[in-house]
Amino acid sequence: MRVPVIAILVVSLITILADTYIYFYVRNRSRRGKRHTRIYAATAAVCWLFLIVAFCLPRRNGDSSILPVMWMLYAYLTVYISKFIFILVTAAAMVSRIWTKNKRHSTAGLIVALVLSLTVFFTLWWGTIWGRRKIQVTQYTMASPKIPKSFDGYRIVQFSDIHLGTWGNDTTFVSRFVDSINAVKPDIILFTGDIVNRNTSELKPFIHTLSRLHATDGVYGVLGNHDYGLYQEWDSENGRLENCRLLEQYQQQMGWEMLNNAHVFLTRGTDSIPLIGVENWGEYPFGEYGRLDEAYPETASTNLNDIRFKILMSHNPEHWRQVVVKSSNIDLTLTGHTHAMQMIFKIGSWRWSPSQLKYEEWAGDFHKNSLKGEPMTCYVNIGCGEVGLPYRIGAAPEITVITLSSTAAK
Fold it and tell me: Quick check: 397 and 137 in contact, CB under 8 A?
């Protein structure tokens, strides 16, 4: 409990310092100082109330909803991130005023601070109200001479990280997302993990909605780090394992086939493509449950470096870089997990996301060669749900439509 207490104390101290600075700034700058400081104090008290209640509510108890904590913390963060920007700009303006003895610097700093802080505040709420509901369909062509001619034009839909607990019992967005996938008329639908946030009970209101997904060759899925019940406290390990079994049962009820360290063969006539799925494999603190050699074991006709065109579903792109590339020649690996941290900035062809600070493969397609020099591709879907903070800015919920192209057929 020591770390949470320290975190609470640090956040509280920073909040007090921020409010103290702005309180005296308003009092000294405003002609109606007393009235404006009272208004400011009242609004700050509301944010403090959100913070206190959010800290007091249980967050790792499976019987409690995460939604109240999520929304109160998000409201607090949107306000105080904007306040910190205001503080930095006005403080810089005051230093400039003292250094240059030019009073205009202080006024200009106030204007810039207000514009920037309000822009950030409204952008964050735009990402909540509209950004996380605007569905993006990404088209991607996977070309390879190893793809059988009978699979030329084969359409795969990938989606990932739906995090149903963030939506509570509201199926509106998920229903629209399902309709968007079905409208593509895919040959197969692949889900690359994190269907819930903490507990399998989050899935129950969405079983009927997600069971409407339809593809010629079915719907397949793998588990993500959030699907193991590791983000809440359990009375016993048996309780957590039962939660995992119930998750698999619900997904079977929806008509999904889970590839937990397993594989199937997609067939067209006499041609086939192995579809491999592994459980979550990730860097600490995420568990390494994925077993690639178990998912596609070596036999007389198959192994991880055979000549077949192969597709792998693995939740975390770190698995591709650290394991898959070093031990196989799997042509196409589909992953999720990063969410692009739910934020991408774009100017023309340039794009940047804070997720790049943590992940080399964070959104879209990435390419490496196997140890024998064979080309390998990893596609990172940025997900369609949110975890922690309910916003998406420049990183809309993604449906990836992957079309296979047999270069030998051209």
Answer: no
Q: At how many degrees (to 10) do helices 67-100 and 2-29 cross?
A: 50
Using CA atoms, how far apart are residues 221 and 315, in angstroms rounded to an integer? 10
Q: With the C-alpha atoms ordered 122, 65, 192, 205, is the resulting torsion angle positive or negative?
A: negative
Residue 290 tokens read as 């994925």
- Residue 18 CB-density burial (10 A; 0-12 exposed, 13-18 middle, 19+ buried): middle
Determine contact, residues 324/290, Cβ cutoff 8 Å.
no
At 103, the amino acid letter reads K
The average pLDDT across 39-66 equals 77
Q: What is the DSSP letter of 393?
A: B
Q: Where in the chain is the domain with CATH 3.60.21?
A: 136-409
- The DSSP H or E segment spanning 45 is helix 33-56
Q: Does domain 136-409 have CATH number 3.60.21?
A: yes
Pair 275, 311: CB distance under 8 Å: yes
Q: With the CA atoms of 324, 326, 328 and 330 taken in that order, what torsion angle do they form, in degrees rounded to the nearest 10?
A: 50
Find out whether 145 and 407 touch, Cβ atoms under 8 Å. yes
Q: Is the dihedral of CA 238, 240, 243, 244 positive or negative?
A: negative
Residue 64: which pLDDT band, with cuts at 50, 70 and 90? low
CB atoms within 10 A of CB 208: 12
For the stretch 293-334, pLDDT in tens is: 999 999 988 899 999 999 999 999 999 999 999 999 999 999
**Going by C-beta distance under 8 Å and a sequence separation of 6 or more, which residues neighbour residue 295?**
259, 261, 262, 263, 276, 277, 278
Residue type (1 letter), 139: Q
Residue 231 CA to residue 225 CA, distance in Å, equals 9
What's the whole-model pTM score?
0.92
Q: Cα 268 from chain centroid?
A: 34
What span, in angstroms and rounded, lies between the C-alpha atoms of 325 and 368?
7
> How far apart are the C-alpha atoms of 243 and 234, rounded to whole Å?
10
Q: Which residues contact 410 (CB under 8 A, 6 or more apart)?
A: none
Higher local confidence (pLDDT), 410 or 101: 101
Q: Of the candidates 392, 390, 395, which has an alpha carbon nearest to the alpha carbon of residue 69?
A: 390
Res 49 pLDDT > 90: no
